Amino acid sequence: MSSGTGITDADGRPVPVKVTVDEHMPATATAGGPAPDAAPAPRIGIRLTPPAGELVWSCTPEAARALAAELLRAAEEAENAPTGRPVTVEAGELRRGDVRDGDRAMTVESARIDGSTVHVTWKSGAGRSWTQAYAADTAITLKRRLPEGR
What we know:
Layout: E1 17-26, E2 29-30, E3 33-34, E4 40-48, E5 55-59, H1 61-80, E6 87-90, E7 99-100, E8 106-114, E9 117-124, E10 129-135, E11 139-144
Antiparallel strand pairs: 1-4, 2-3, 4-5, 6-11, 7-11, 8-9, 9-10
């Protein structure tokens, strides 16, 4: 990972991040040190380099997976949180993952433009899908819009 990851320090400055497979440590140990013939346990290294100084962490692959799962959960929660106010877009600008504003959850599964008509396939919160046609310039109010490229 590089400083272009979007990770910043408390002051908003970019923080370069490097993830590596670090040196191995003994998997088991006794009071006197590593057990004889102990298999080395792989470690994942995480190095953050903010302007204030370098931070170096190390964890097991299992802990790295748990961290990744928590980061993914938090990212999805942040993306799925309702925005402060609805946004209105033209039907021709709809994209997968957009959620229509209204009493019932309706998420865009796909949007296909055919000349001046947009065919939008919606999916309800109950899992039902249907397609509706709109003029490309029809205003559609969205409750939530995922970031570009998702």
